[in-house]
Specification:
- By secondary structure, the protein is α+β, with helices and mostly antiparallel strands.
- The protein folds into two domains: 68 residues, Vcp-like ATPase, Chain A, domain 2, CATH 3.10.330; 219 residues, Fumarylacetoacetase-like, C-terminal domain (Fumarylacetoacetate hydrolase, domain 2).
- The strands form three sheets. Strands 1, 2, 3, 4, 5, 6, 9, 10, 12 and 15 form a ten-stranded mixed sheet that branches.
- The model has no long low-confidence stretch (mean pLDDT 97).
- The chain binds 2,5-dioxopentanoic acid (DO4) and magnesium ion.
- The site of 2,5-dioxopentanoic acid has 12 residues, from strand 5 and helix 3.
Length: 296
C-alpha cells in the first residue's frame, strides 16, 4: 500500500495506490492531513488508507498517466552519510585524491556510535518525479546518491518509506569536509518520490533492493544495485540520533545513505536521466541540467 500525490486542476490530491497500481483518491491534499486523520480516528495508517479503496474513489487514469508531485511535502529532509561500506570507500577515495593512503574521519564515523547526519533540503527546494535536477557550475564530479528515505511523524514514528536522490559533488566534498553543505545543497539537488510505502506494509526494510540507472543520449551509461541489508546501522539508530533534542515536523524525511556509487571517472552531464528504483516503492526518475538554467 502506497501513497502518492497527483496534481489535478492545479491542486494536489493524496491517493492510495494498491499493489495492482490502481490509485484511489483520498479527501486530503497531503500526507500531513492523512497523519492528522489517523491520529484523530485512532486508525492505523494502513487501515485508514484501506478505507479509501472503494470503486467510487478509483482514479480513472492509469498511475503512469497521472502528474505526480512529491509524495510528502517534507518540511525538512535530513540525510545520513557513510552508512554503507561502499560510501566509506568512495569518500576515502575523494578525500585522499585517490591514494587511499591514510585513515580518514570517514573511517572513524563509519565505526563511531554517532552516525553522520546532515541537513539536505527544505520542502520548497525539493524536485518532484520527472522534474529536472540541477548540476553545480563549480563542480566537475557530480553523482546521484540513490537512497531509502524514511518518512517520519513529529514524534519520530516511522510512517513509511520513499526514494531519495541525495545529489552530491564529490570534488567539493573531497577538497574539504567543511564544504559539505556546498557539496550537498544547491538549486534542485534533491528529489523524492514517486510514492511513500506505508511502513506497516513493508515486511523487512533491510531486504529492499535499490537500483540506479543513468541514461545518456538514449544509452545506459551506468547501472548499479544494492540491498538495504548492507546498511551498517539500524534505521532506528538513525532516527534516534536525528530526533535527539531536535524538533521534528510531520512529514520529515531522513535519507539513509548511499550504497551505489558510479565508477570514479563518471560525472553527470546535462541531458542525463537518473532512474532510481526501490522494491515496492517504484521508480524515481529525473533528468539533469545546469542549475543556472533552472532559475524560475
Ligand atoms: O560524508 C558525506 C556524505 C555521504 C553520503 O551522503 C552518503 O553516504 O550517502
Ligand atoms: Mg548520501
Amino acid at each position: 500500500m502506497r501513497l502518492v500525490r497527483f496534481v489535478e486542476n492545479g491542486l494536489p490530491v493524496l491517493a492510495v495506490v494498491t499493489d495492482d497500481d490502481r490509485a484511489y483518491r483520498t479527501p486530503f491534499d497531503g500526507m500531513q492531513a492523512f497523519m492528522k486523520e489517523a491520529r484523530l480516528t485512532g486508525l492505523q495508517p494502513e487501515a485508514l488508507a484501506e478505507s479509501f479503496v472503494t470503486q467510487e474513489r478509483l482514479v480513472g487514469e492509469s498511475l503512469s498517466s497521472l502528474k505526480l508531485t512529491v509524495p510528502v511535502e517534507a518540511p525538512e529532509v535530513w540525510a545520513a552519510g557513510v552508512t554503507y561500506l561502499r560510501s566509506k570507500e568512495a569518500r576515502n577515495y575523494e578525500a585522499t585524491d585517490g591514494k587511499l593512503d591514510r585513515e580518514t574521519f570517514y573511517d572513524k564515523v563509519y565505526d563511531a556510535p554517532r552516525p553522520e547526519i546532515f541537513f539536505k533540503s527544505t520542502g520548497a527546494r525539493l524536485a518532484e518525479p520527472e522534474e529536472t535536477l540541477g548540476l553545480r557550475s563549480d563542480s566537475s564530479w557530480q553523482v546521484p546518491e540513490p537512497e531509502l528515505g524514511i518518512v517520519l511523524g513529529s514524534d519520530s514514528t516511522v510512517w513509511g518509506y520513499t526514494i531519495g536522490n541525495d545529489m552530491s559533488c564529490r570534488d567539493i566534498e573531497g577538497e574539504n569536509p567543511l564544504y559539505l553543505p556546498q557539496a550537498k545543497i544547491w538549486r534542485k539537488s534533491c528529489s523524492i518520490g514517486p510514492a511513500v510505502r506505508l511502513a506497516g506494509t513493508v515486511s523487512d526494510p533491510y531486504a529492499l533492493e535499490i537500483t540506479c540507472r543513468i541514461e545518456r543520449d538514449g544509452q545506459e551509461v551506468f547501472r548499479g544495485s544494492a540491498s538495504t541489508g548492507q546498511l551498517k546501522r539500524k534505521l532506528d539508530e538513525l532516527v534516534h540520533y536525528l530526533s535527539l533534542d531536535n524538533e521534528l515536523y510531520d512529514g520529515t524525511v531522513l535519507l539513509t545513505g548511499t550504497c551505489i556509487v558510479p565508477p570514479n571517472d563518471f560525472t553527470l552531464q546535462e541531458g542525463d536521466r537518473i532512474i532510481i528504483g526501490i522494491d515496492g516503492i517504484g521508480e524515481l526518475a529525473n533528468p539533469v541540467a545546469p542549475a543556472s538554467s533552472l532559475v524560475k
